[in-house]
Design goal:
This protein is of the alpha+beta class and 313 residues long. It has one domain: Glutamine Phosphoribosylpyrophosphate, subunit 1, domain 1 (4-Layer Sandwich). It is globular, with a radius of gyration of 18 Å. The structure holds aspartic acid (ASP).
Length: 313
């Protein structure tokens, strides 16, 4: 039987067991398990990697716990602007959207850009026009309302500061961006990432999540990657593509390449976050340099895990 593998994330950051209630932990794990299962079932049934990553990310976008789709953070105007991207590793087709408002599942919109346009990246008013043209589901602003995230925005809305997703203490940072990477039984790789960006963001700020090569990348010869963390640093280090380059040009393994990028190169410029990665042999790597990262993976050999924390408790 050919191999498959899938990994997902729901963001990295200051996620400590000591700060989490058992109830909340259970909620996160259930949401992660559900998204993982949706993606894995597609791969088990000989479905494609691109279908698996889109479906897994849609499931996370529909959950209020994560900073993507329904759970997207508030921007400086009290609205929600979402970024997403998707890529397949065989022909390196890709689709990306940014500053999207009102669309229920931005990842599906990114896929439409990939499959139904001659372009890769759409932003601004045009992206909404494109979404309507392709009958994407729109939702009212109320759909995105979440009391916790509203209060979080209230705290900083009159300042110039912005914040990466929710945090109980000012210094804490959590990046609730979501993503998925997969290898299907045909040997094809795919990656998808979706986010609401940063609380109180302004000036049309766009992070790494919708940028091919920075937050998302897939190449059948090397790996599929989805990132989460301080987007500006991931853009500057072209993180997702860098992992692929280390494998292609230096012959590094998936584990070594992704560890080098997250725990060395990103730290050198004070960047924080993590990534999920899968290679053409079905190896999975989930490195992060923050306290925790919501993450899960499953492989055709039966191996699987749903995890939240790192070594620091
Ligand atoms: N990378 C995302 C951004 O900068 C944030 C996150 O990972 O939550 O927009």
């Amino acid at each position: 039987m050919s191999k498959y593998a899938i990994a997902i994330h729901g963001g990295a950051g200051t996620i400590l067991k000591s700060k989490m209630t058992a109830e909340k932990e259970e909620e996160y794990k259930t949401a992660l398990s559900e998204a993982l299962m949706i993606g894995e079932n597609i791969l088990k049934d000989k479905g494609t990697a691109i279908d698996a990553v889109e479906a897994a990310v849609r499931s996370l976008e529909d959950c209020h716990l994560f900073n993507a789709g329904k759970g997207s953070v508030f921007n400086s105007k009290g609205g929600h602007e979402m970024d997403a991207s998707i890529m397949e590793g065989k022909m390196k087709n890709a689709g990306a959207v940014a500053t999207v408002t009102g669309v229920k599942n931005p990842i599906t919109l990114a896929r439409k850009v990939m499959e139904k346009s001659d372009h890769v990246f759409l932003v601004g008013e045009g992206v909404e026009e494109f979404a309507r043209l392709h009958n994407l589901e729109f939702v009212d602003n109320d759909y995105f309302y979440d009391e916790f995230r509203f209060n979080q925005w209230q705290e900083i809305k009159d300042s110039d500061s912005f914040q990466l997703d929710h945090s109980d203490e000012k210094k804490e940072q959590k990046f609730g961006t979501v993503g998925a990477v997969a290898l299907d039984m045909e040997g094809n790789l795919a990656a998808a990432t979706s986010t609401g960006g940063m609380t109180n963001k302004k000036f049309g700020r766009i992070g790494d999540s919708s940028i091919i090569g920075a937050g998302t990348y897939a190449n059948n010869d090397t790996c599929a990657i989805s990132c989460t963390g301080s987007g500006e640093f991931f853009i500057r280090n072209v993180v997702a593509y860098d992992v692929s380059c280390l494998m292609e040009f230096k012959g590094m393994s998936l584990a070594d390449a992704s560890d080098e990028v997250i725990n060395k190169r990103l730290l050198e410029i004070n960047g924080d976050g993590g990534l999920i990665a899968v290679d053409a042999n079905g190896n999975v790597a989930l490195p992060f340099n923050t306290e925790g990262m919501y993450r899960a993976y499953a492989k055709s050999n039966g191996e699987s895990a749903v995890e939240i924390y790192g070594d620091k408790k």
